[in-house]
Write a structure and sequence with these properties.
10 helices, alpha+beta, 28% strand, Hypothetical upf0131 protein ytfp, two-stranded antiparallel ribbon, disordered N terminus
C-alpha cells in the first residue's frame, strides 16, 4: 500500500476527534506537502493565549467561550460542546474562497473551503466550550482551523434570540496564498464539483453544510444555488 492509499484509508470516515488528538492531520500534511508551512503546537498555543487575552468584558463574565460555527463545525465539531445558540454576524458572509490541496482537495483535484469573508451577514451557530474544557478543546480547534494560517481568530459580536454574544470566529486571512478572492461562479462550480482528497469531496462538504443549515432553519440561498449547479455538473459527467 502506498502513502496515498494509506492516507485515504485512514481518513475515509472524515475528520474525527481522534485524528485531532493524535495530530494525524498535521503529520499527514507534512508528509504529503513538505513545502507547506505548518504551525507547531507552541505557535498554536500562543495564538490561543493571545485570543483569550483579548476576551471582551462580556466574554470574561461567562463560563468558557463561544465559537462561531458556519461550516463543518456545524455538523462535525469534534469537541465537547456545552451549549448551542443560533445567531447572526454582521459584516461577514460565508464564502468558498480558500483553495485546498489537502483534506478535501489535492494537487491533481484542488477544491475549496469555506471562510468568513468581509461584507454582508452570516447566520450560524455559537458553540460554547466550558471554562474547564478550554485547555483541551481549544487546542483541538486550533489544530483543525489554524495549522496553515488560512484563518485569523477574531472576536466578533453575534446577535441571538437571547441577546448579543461575543464569539471567536475564524475569518479568512486575505494575505494567505490560498485565498482566492471572489471567484466567478463557473470556476467555483468546477472546483466544488471536482475537488477531492483524503477527507472526501468538496461536493460532500457542500451537501452536508447545506443540509445542516436547512435542519437549523437557516436558508443560505447562495449555497443552495451552488449545490444545484454542482449536481448539474456531476450529471453532465
Amino acid at each position: 500500500m502506498n502513502d496515498h492509499e494509506s492516507d485515504s484509508e485512514r481518513f475515509a470516515g472524515g475528520l474525527t476527534r481522534e485524528m485531532l488528538e493524535n495530530d494525524a492531520m498535521r503529520r499527514a500534511l507534512r508528509a504529503r506537502h513538505p513545502d507547506v508551512a505548518v504551525l507547531d503546537d507552541a505557535a498554536l498555543q500562543a495564538s490561543i493565549d493571545d485570543t483569550l487575552a483579548r476576551r471582551p468584558p462580556q466574554a470574561r463574565a461567562q463560563d468558557g467561550i463561544w465559537l462561531f460555527a458556519y461550516g463543518s463545525l456545524l455538523w462535525n465539531p469534534c469537541i465537547r460542546v456545552a451549549e448551542r445558540r443560533l445567531g447572526r454576524l454582521y459584516g461577514f458572509h460565508r464564502d468558498f474562497c480558500l483553495k485546498l490541496i489537502f483534506g478535501r482537495g489535492s494537487p491533481d483535484a484542488p477544491g475549496l473551503m469555506l471562510a468568513l469573508a468581509p461584507g454582508g451577514s452570516c447566520q450560524g451557530v455559537a458553540l460554547r466550550v466550558a471554562e474547564r474544557d478550554l485547555d483541551s478543546e481549544l487546542l483541538l480547534v486550533w489544530r483543525r482551523e489554524m495549522l496553515t494560517g488560512v484563518y485569523r481568530p477574531r472576536w466578533l459580536r453575534l446577535y441571538t434570540a437571547h441577546g448579543p454574544l461575543d464569539v471567536v470566529a475564524f475569518v479568512v486571512n486575505r494575505d494567505h496564498e490560498r485565498y482566492t478572492g471572489r471567484l466567478g461562479e463557473s470556476e467555483l462550480v468546477r472546483l466544488m464539483a471536482t475537488g477531492h482528497g483524503v477527507l472526501g469531496s468538496c461536493a460532500e462538504y457542500l451537501n452536508n453544510t447545506v443540509a445542516h443549515l436547512d435542519e437549523l432553519g437557516i436558508r443560505d440561498r447562495r449555497l443552495h444555488r451552488l449545490r444545484e449547479r454542482v449536481r448539474a455538473h456531476d450529471r453532465r459527467g
